[in-house]
Design goal:
Layout lengths: L1 E5 L10 H15 L3 E7 L4 H8 L4 E6 L8 H4 L6 H16 L5 E5 L15 E5 L12 E2 L2 E2 L17 H25 L2 E3 L2 H10 L8 E3 L6 H9 L3 H4 L4 E6 L8 H8 L7 E6 L5 H7 L5 E5 L3 H10 L2 E4 L9 H8 L3 E5 L16 E4 L2 H14 L21 H18 L4
Parallel strand pairs: 1-2, 1-4, 2-3, 4-5, 5-8, 8-9, 10-11, 10-13, 11-12, 13-14, 14-15
Antiparallel strand pairs: 6-7
Helix pairs in contact: 1-14, 7-11, 9-13
């Protein structure tokens, strides 16, 4: 098949989880003999980011995402016209480049894009986060999970005291956003990376037509994981020092600071905590939690993250927001590591990808830390075998090749069911 992937997160100097998902899938489809092109941003320059991105096919710079702020923070309200404007711009670029492709697969942050793509264009999108119903994509505010359904409550996510006028503008923006997203889902197929995400949208928009909705779990390249596991230094893995790895974007929702705040006063000295990632909270977390047991490595290529996870004894995913389907959790499970996380969002769905008891889930950060300490003091668990992966034989397949086959079947159904433009 000829497949056009579309993502406004690519190129990037630091590729996030959504972008890595797109590249992993695209490269797997290329390896299967399909023709895949990637439609992305005009800035930054793709060549300067090509190593970070790692895509092996043709890149098309066509999405102009400059001047995207529209001074919303300064004005103190969400603009009802901003997101539909950029959704139309992306849809226009799709229409311009879709000819000659069998399928267009959008991965991005504007779920209403499909509303502006003609029904005759074979189009599908994947939803990676709670941006289907949440205008800031996180469902997280004031340090905790947001469970508000009323669009008026969203006004406080952009202004501390919005008042009646700002509240009205923001509520209108959120209502339009959700309504146009529902229209897009009714018009074109949509794939959610977890059951949790689909259910979260249905809770906010219970009357939405979801007959074209599908769930295809997130995935990893198990070949890359196997390569990382084989490179582990067995002598280092046999050390009595526990190696704990935490990887991800460093912001409040990811819980790096919250974990260190709860864990460092309780942990023994026979631990080494390796933190990999960058983000707006990094400077504050590093300054507040200087400790000889903690090493901050900043942003690293994905191969480095996999190598660090393979060499670790334990992975901690301390996200305090509702992770849709955490790739770092999935990687840890497939690498045979005990993984500690909070029991919300899509994370409980990942348990099927590891051995029984491998994913340890807790209701809050303090109980997570207590559970971690209990395991550390009991001695290294049998599930960790010298740092070399055994979990690739446990649980369901999480390999991108498996997910790619499911998506290819969906692509074929879309092509069969609708006429070409």
């Amino acid at each position: 098949m000829k497949i056009l992937m579309v993502c406004e997160d690519i190129p990037a100097l630091q590729l996030g989880g959504l972008g890595k998902h797109v590249v992993t899938l695209s490269n797997a489809l290329l390896a299967k003999g399909h023709e895949v092109a990637l439609l992305g941003r005009t800035e930054p320059d793709y060549q300067s980011c090509s190593t970070e991105v790692g895509f092996r096919g043709r890149f098309i710079p066509a999405l102009d995402m400059t001047h995207s702020g529209w001074k919303e923070p300064a004005l103190g309200f969400f603009n009802p016209w901003k997101r539909p404007f950029f959704a139309r711009r992306i849809a226009k670029a799709i229409r311009r480049h879709a000819r000659g492709f069998d399928i267009v697969h959008y991965h991005g942050h504007l779920p209403m894009v499909g509303r502006y793509v003609p029904s005759a264009v074979p189009f599908v999108q994947t939803r990676h986060d709670q941006g289907s119903e949440c205008i800031i994509h996180l469902r997280f505010r004031n340090g905790d999970v947001c469970r508000e359904l009323d669009p008026r409550a969203c006004a406080s996510c952009i202004h501390q005291a919005p008042g009646p006028l700002r509240t009205a503008f923001s509520a209108h923006a959120v209502s339009r956003y959700r309504r146009e997203t529902a229209d897009a889902f009714a018009q074109h197929p949509v794939v959610f990376v977890s059951n949790f995400l689909q259910e979260a949208f249905a809770k906010v928009m219970p009357d939405a037509d979801m007959t074209k909705a599908h769930v295809v779990h997130n995935f990893v390249s198990e070949a890359a994981l196997w390569g990382a596991s084989q490179a582990v230094d067995l002598n280092a893995s046999a050390s009595t020092v526990w190696r704990i790895v935490i990887a991800g974007r460093m912001d409040e929702a990811k819980g790096f600071g919250a974990f260190l705040e709860a864990a460092l006063p309780k942990l023994d000295n026979n631990v080494s905590i390796e933190i990999i990632g960058d983000g707006p909270a990094r400077a504050v977390v590093e300054k507040r939690h200087r400790d000889p047991r903690v090493v901050f490595r900043g942003h690293q290529l994905n191969a480095v993250v996999l190598a660090a996870t393979a060499a670790a004894d334990v992975s901690v995913v301390p996200s305090v927001w509702q992770e849709p389907f955490g790739t770092t959790t999935l990687e840890a499970l497939r690498l045979g590591k005990l993984c500690f996380a909070l029991a919300h969002g899509g994370t409980p769905e990942l348990a099927i990808y590891g051995a029984p008891g491998q994913l340890r889930l807790f209701p809050d950060m303090n109980s997570l830390v207590d559970g971690l300490i209990e395991v550390l003091r009991a001695g290294k668990p049998s599930i960790v075998t010298g740092g070399v992966s055994t979990s690739l034989t446990h649980g369901c397949s999480a390999d991108v090749a498996h997910a790619a086959e499911r998506l290819l079947a969906l692509y074929r159904d879309i092509v069969t069911e609708r006429p070409r433009a």
